[in-house]
Give the backbone structure.
Amino acid sequence: MLARDFLRTNAQRLMAEFPERYAGSGLERFVAIDARRREIVTQLEQKRHRKNTLSATKGKPSPEALVEVKSLKDEIRELEAEVERQDAELEKVEQRIPNVPDDAVPRGKDESANRIERQWGKPPAFDFEPLAHWDLGPALGILDFERGVKLAGARFTVLSGAGARLSRALANFLLDLQTERHGYREMQPPALANAQSLFGTGQLPKFEQDLFLTREGYFLIPTAEVPLTNLHREEILEVGQLPLRYTAYTPCFRSEAGAAGRDTRGMIRQHQFEKVEIVTLTTPEASAETLELLTGHAEEALRRLGLHYRVASLATGDLGFGAAHTYDLEVWLPGQNGFKEISSCSNCKDFQARRAQIRFRRTEGEKPEYVHTLNGSALPIGRTLVAILENYQRRDGSVEIPEALRRYFGADEIRKS
């Protein structure tokens, strides 16, 4: 969430500079409500001043003064109630206004303006027509889309045998990489979260339709970013504790309300999937450098798996709600002859910390500051499994296991059982 004083000062500039981000965001409504609120506050202060002046008059007040004081009390009470209503309305609007893009973010109305920063590796060369994972997996007997539909519905998949084992191997490999090499602390948070946690990271109230809600009022987490970031909600940390780095392997649940007709085949866009997430809480001056570091940690997983990928800076019109700067990692999928997003790494600056009230103090007695929060996928299990199947497939339908995964998987290939 952005500070009210900042919005008051910068609203017109933001709407002029980033119409692709702030048109229809509620910022115009913020300006109108805030102006009305300030008018009411001015009236309130004037009437309070008049009442105090009359009340301070020496001697017995005149009947006219008593009548006026009584009338002023009623008017002040009404204006105070109106200020409270305007404050509540302002707060609702503020909660839906997105973060301010960083200066490094490319300008543009949509993903067509995203900027490719770098790529790694080359697409594998095949002497046959490579298959998509939705053909490879069922032929190997490791992915069952029909039974996923039977058990739960569309956008669910059953992994069996070597498919389930490959999924487990990926989780262990990715967690070991982030904990042993990069120093993240492994956590095992709940897969359910309360509304305060979803508000803290920005999913609520704006994106409630994308969440699964239980009868008891808990939400299934859409990503481990939610519980990991909220570990320190409403806390004041000491500067010596920063940076705090967390990783977790969790199930994730998304309704995909805005994804109708997109990636309907295969495992690219599922209602339930597993993911290793990395989250960092740090100081404001370190957050830009931390984004590069965190993105590199996700990239290393792809490099170790030998997967060709590229890194894109998201444009202002494609940037997520809470992000100030995001890098998307896009992996090459031969069976689909194109790149597909496999990770997003974002710097949210103090946007989430304001919502979740996560602060730190530099020295004893000093006013607390908001931390900066960063998060990234490192990596989603399903999409990484898809990338391995498509990139390491052989002419005979078998699939080679990347060398980095073999000790976790227990074999160097998958063949039809």
